[in-house]
Amino acid sequence: MKSITITVDGPPIAQKRPRFFRRGAGVGTYNPQEAEAGQWVLAARPQVPLKISGAVSLEILFSFQRPRSHFGTGKNSENLKATAPEYHTAKPDLDNCIKFVKDCLRNLAFEDDSKVVALFAKKQWGEPKTVVRIFSHDEETT
């Protein structure tokens, strides 16, 4: 089973909903994340040596930086408070982060979202970044 690992530094990004606008009698749509998605793809593209044509599994790790409020003050400024949460349960939602990554990797690392047959994803505290491992279930690649 072949695999590709992609690491994109910076805070993980969640997929936003498309926006609508009214112009005269018509309604149009636009993607409010075009620039963010473009920057993410630019960072990921050099790490993708080939596009996988068959079924894939994804393993995605979203690391978020802890806020200063999780740490003590003064001489304890480097120590976590006892009340600091172990898990990242705040927004953005895990499923929206997954959607953003899958949309960015579509036509770059694999043909379409429908090719994803298994998925493991996790949010955690750490250095802000997104790490994606793509596993090919087929030997064919393009």
Task: Set down the secondary structure blueprint.
Elements: E1 3-9, E2 19-23, E3 26-30, H1 34-44, E4 56-64, H2 94-105, E5 116-125, E6 129-136
Helix pairs in contact: 1-2
What can you see in these coordinates?
- 16% of the residues lie in helices and 31% in strands.
- Helix 1 crosses helix 2.
- With 142 residues, it is α+β, with helices and mostly antiparallel strands.
- The two termini are 15 Å apart.
- It has a single domain, classed as Holliday junction resolvase RusA (60s Ribosomal Protein L30, Chain: A, 2-Layer Sandwich), CATH 3.30.1330.70.
- The strands form two sheets. The chain has a four-stranded mixed sheet, covered by helices on one side. Strands 2-3 form a two-stranded antiparallel sheet.
- 19% of the residues are buried.
- The model has no long low-confidence stretch (mean pLDDT 91).
- A hairpin with a 2-residue loop joins strand 2 and strand 3.
- The chain is globular, with a radius of gyration of 18 Å.
- The longest helix is centred in the last third of the chain and has 12 residues.
